[in-house]
Amino acid sequence: MSEQFVMERLTDNLTRLRLGRTRDILPEMIKTAESEDWSYLTLLDRLTGEEVAGKEQKRISSALRGSGLPYVKTIDEFDFAFQPGIERRQVMNLFDCSFIEQKENVIFLGPPGVGKTHLAAALLVKAAECGESIHFTTMPDLIYKLRLDRDTGRAGKRRRPYECSSLVVVDEVGYTPIDREECNLFYQFVAMRYERSSTIITSNKAFDEWSELFHDSVIVAAILDRLLHHSVVVNIKGNSYRLKGKLSAMTQTEMDKPAEEPRQEEVMSGM
Ligand code: ADP
Ligand code: MG
């Protein structure tokens, strides 16, 4: 039997077995194995290692694509030096994903641009890498889905991603007010996930401002009670990272044209 025939049959079988990565790298790997005098065991070990890594990468990419996450951010891209108010260790501890096993929540509070969504997204990416099911939504989008599912009678019948994912991010809670009925739907969402799975919330509003925004202090108290019972709260009191770019650009302009100096308020109002 010619070597070429064996290779063709092997390629065909690897395709049938859905071992595409092995099929693609096999010829090169055999060459390397021969030139470096690998044992059969080493060759098999390297091939299966590559296949598993490839499949894992595909699984993560597919989970991220289906999660609703608008962009991929990682914790490596986060500049802690820019945000000295954040306790680095508290945030880094979250990245072992044990809060998901413990069914704990994470709440990022702070003004716009301080990195709340970035950190929430990075945790979601990490959770996907750890094999957890993930879902990303914003508060207006979640309210829309909750309303729709209630109105169409789907609520409670088929489990939705916002309901059954191990980790759900609800971004931008508090940016837009919600009415009493929507507040009730949000309460049901929080109560449903309470002690069953983890939720990350980002908000630009302090907890004492939530009642005002959601029009019902009794329900807000019940929401906060469940959200905060097992939770890590990261309160970010710093400057906007978006402003950092603008300020350095402004400084550059200043260096070019030193005649007038813009005041901080002018920089802010230009955003
Ligand atoms: P927020 O949700 O608090 O309004 P974002 O997370 O959307 O802010 O951050 C705004 C932009 O600035 C994003 O592109 C984000 O990646 C970036 N960013 C914010 N903080 C940091 C940081 N400390 N290091 C690196 N990039 C940051
Ligand atoms: Mg945000």
Structural overview:
It is a single chain. Helix 9 (180-193) links the parallel strand 3 (167-173) and strand 4. The protein contains 13 helices and five strands. Helix 2 (20-35) packs antiparallel against helix 3, helix 7 packs across helix 9 and helix 9 runs parallel beside helix 11. Strands 2-3-4-1-5 form a five-stranded parallel β-sheet, with helices on both faces. Residues 254-271 have low confidence and may be disordered. It folds into two domains: 3-66, no CATH class; 75-235, Rossmann fold. It is elongated and about 80 Å long. It has 271 residues and is an alpha/beta fold. Bound molecules: adenosine-5'-diphosphate and magnesium ion (MG). Residues 116-117, 171-172, 202 line the site of magnesium ion.
